[in-house]
Prior knowledge:
Blueprint (H helix, E strand, L loop, with lengths): L1 E4 L4 E7 L5 E5 L11 E4 L3 E6 L4 E7 L5 E2 L7 E2 L5 E5 L2 E5 L5 E7 L7 E8 L8 E4 L4 E2 L2 E2 L2 E6 L6 E6 L5 E7 L12 E5 L6 E6 L4 E7 L5 E8 L7 E3 L4 E5 L4 E7 L5 E7 L7 E3 L1
Antiparallel strand pairs: 1-2, 1-27, 2-3, 4-5, 5-6, 6-7, 6-8, 9-10, 10-11, 11-12, 13-16, 14-15, 16-17, 17-18, 19-20, 20-21, 21-22, 23-24, 24-25, 25-26
Amino acid sequence: MLLYNSESRTGDTARVEDDGSVTTLVSPLPESVGRWTHIGSDGRHLVFYDQFSGRGAAVVMDEQGAVNPLPILPVAVLGDWTNVAANNGWFMLYNARTGAAATGFVNPEAIGQFEFRRRFLLPPDTRFTDVLAAGWSREGGGIGNRRFLFFDRLSGSGVTYRLDDGGQVTILTRTQGLPAPSSEGWSHAAAQNNEGSGRLYFFHNNTRRGTTAQVEPDGALRRLKDNVDSFQHCTVIADGRRLLCYNRVGGLATTVDIGEDGSLRRLRELGPIGDFTHIAT
């Protein structure tokens, strides 16, 4: 994973182990990274994006945590986006103001290059705050059924899409509402895609209440468990194979696993791990 501070423009890389411990790989990165507002990661490929300039950079992180090339300058025009999500090598970019979305990938043969594959508009009567990697399944030995959930943290409504190996998208279904325990809506939404589970965690910072859910292969959002183990204030809940709940005040963090029944299992209390604005796993 990448831990990044957009104010100091520095970052570290680390690996979350199966037991929830964190092994630091490169700390700090050898040069200051650029100024970025969003980072999308599928665990290997990362897209750095600056919402103010509409430009970005695409990189690859190897097993030793080295980032190549180092994202110092915004080298590509990516457009106007508010969200960046990734699912097994494919990225989904989304503009919550306009409903525009696009799929693309980091080209492994052209270092630093991001290639768009499909641009589309979400249904005109929908508005979502987040897009989340919501599971995948294997087809013929490969991963060919990636799912993304577009979700509104205020209303709890959503819509799921299927992304195929060519970057084409197919709408699956509009999901049933997942109301928050307060009229303020959910403060965080994060996905755990360990083995393509499609399990999700929705958290409300003020009430300290969370709900787990799962996106099924047909795109339906199935609620798993309400009022699951709550945390103190979380600045960031990073998603990936494991969740990482991080509080910038004090730099404390906890690694978490979502079980098949929707229960949360705290793996390891960490901290202080440093001062970061973004964590991409």
